[in-house]
């Protein structure tokens, strides 16, 4: 489904969002106060505009309120980031994603109605740290403080050549296996009879502690 996105602030984060949305054939309006940044995206976005997003009249004239999603990707200037989020909220945008620089900033953004508050540097730092500590965990998504979804590489011979029924992840670890990736082949929602091979990547969901326990068994 084609949707309308406006990305405000074309630093590394905003630019990366624009590029992926454009690749996925979505309508993207890219806005930045800096002309060079806008020019860099002129061939990528549906429309790229030089504007100060803190100016409410400008956002009104761009009919920002009619966009399905607005991404406020202004980073270091926290005041501008908050003000722009507030204006797009008041203009009636139904879904707003804003980048936060720190936890206090994130709280303010949630209070003024940002639907998603993201901390790219903090989250990426956490992912890298998890990967350093647990190289077998390839991907890691904290669903909440206690539940995690993770992709774990099978490197222990104790798991190799066994079916999910034999491995009994649910009873032994409290984990549900949602996918098995074997090379380029992905089995989503695998059956009990599906067998795990060396270097397969299994996606599991369950208590964070159980994911860590499974990872420990790979070493
Ligand atoms: P990143 O860490 O993602 O590179 P930056 O903070 O460096 O983020 O970049 C944010 C972008 O937001 C910059 O290109 C900057 O010109 C833009 N920006 C800052 N203030 C405004 C504003 N009031 N209106 C539009 N764009 C802005």
UniProtKB/TrEMBL annotation:
Residues 2-118 form the RCK N-terminal domain. It comes from the Bacteria. Residues 135-219 form the RCK C-terminal domain. GO terms for biological process: potassium ion transport. SUPFAM superfamilies: NAD(P)-binding Rossmann-fold domains, TrkA C-terminal domain-like. GO terms for molecular function: monoatomic cation transmembrane transporter activity. Pfam families: TrkA_C, TrkA_N. This is Potassium transporter Trk. It comes from Loigolactobacillus coryniformis subsp. torquens DSM 20004 = KCTC 3535. The lineage of its organism: Bacteria, Bacillati, Bacillota, Bacilli, Lactobacillales.
């Amino acid at each position: 489904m084609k949707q309308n996105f406006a990305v405000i602030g074309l630093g590394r984060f905003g630019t990366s969002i624009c590029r992926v949305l454009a690749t996925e054939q979505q309508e993207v309006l890219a806005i930045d106060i800096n002309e060079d940044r806008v020019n860099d995206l002129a061939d990528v976005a549906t429309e790229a505009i030089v504007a100060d997003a803190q100016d409410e009249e400008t956002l009104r004239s761009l009919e920002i309120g009619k966009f399905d999603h607005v991404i406020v990707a202004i980073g270091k200037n926290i005041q501008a980031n908050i003000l722009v989020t507030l204006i797009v909220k008041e203009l009636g945008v139904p879904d707003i994603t804003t980048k936060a620089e720190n936890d206090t900033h994130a709280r303010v953004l949630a209070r003024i109605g940002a639907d998603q508050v993201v901390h790219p540097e903090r989250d990426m730092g956490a992912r890298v740290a998890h990967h350093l500590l647990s190289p077998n965990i390839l991907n890691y998504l904290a669903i909440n403080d206690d539940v995690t979804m993770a992709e774990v590489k099978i490197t222990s011979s104790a798991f190799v050549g066994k079916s999910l029924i034999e491995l009994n992840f649910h009873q032994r670890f409290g984990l549900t296996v949602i996918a098995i990736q074997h090379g380029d082949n992905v089995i989503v929602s695998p059956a009990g009879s599906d067998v795990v091979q060396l270097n397969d990547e299994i996606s599991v969901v369950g208590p964070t502690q159980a994911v860590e326990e499974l990872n420990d068994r790979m070493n």
